[in-house]
């Protein structure tokens, strides 16, 4: 995908991309990509899966899909995660950065 400095893999099911999570931030927000990863700031602490749940909710809301369509494929206990979103394409991901 050449429109963003973000590595996105498309499949018939949806898209997969890398996310860098910053827990315990002052507010929840999606920041522009850096080093090939989407940056996500979360207010939740990284305990008891709270940050992962908030990450899924924030990405789902930004893309306009149900939370059940967003999943963390790897990196559940890391700040660097691989996220899969079903039912969308890479062009939909661009809408996050146009706002």
UniProtKB/TrEMBL annotation:
Q: Got a GO cellular component term for this one?
A: cytoplasm
Recorded superkingdom: Bacteria
* Short name of any one Pfam family annotated for the protein: DUF167
**Coiled-coil residue windows:** none
Q: Which InterPro entries match?
A: DUF167, YggU-like_sf
> Where is the secretion signal located?
none
The family note in this entry says:
Belongs to the UPF0235 family.
- Annotated protein name in UniProt: UPF0235 protein JFN93_10285
Q: Which SMART domains match?
A: DUF167 (SM01152)
Query: SUPFAM superfamilies per the record?
Result: YggU-like
